[in-house]
Amino acid sequence: MRNRNFWIALGVGAAIGGVAALLYAPQTGTATRKKLKRGLEDLGETLEDAGDYLKDQAERLGKEAQRLIDASKDQFDDAIDAATGVVRSANKAATKAVTKLV
Predict the structure, then answer these.
(1) pLDDT recorded at residue 57
(2) Which sequence spans correspond to the domains of the chain?
């Protein structure tokens, strides 16, 4: 019951507020509609610009991520080559040590 009363009061308050806004509006309805239309057009242009900006940034970040991935692969390959060299050297040293013992 309390919930229903809240929604009724909210609806009545919104209707009264709407009527008061129309009665005390400083402009005619035509001027207000033109102003709203201009505002929406400006918002549309702003959203278009924001979309273009986000698209450019996503492309830039994608390229930067690919560059970092490529650099990481190169470093990983260098680390693998270095580790392989160390293992080969250790294997040769172990072979020499075994040969000397035998």
Answers:
(1) 95
(2) 29-101
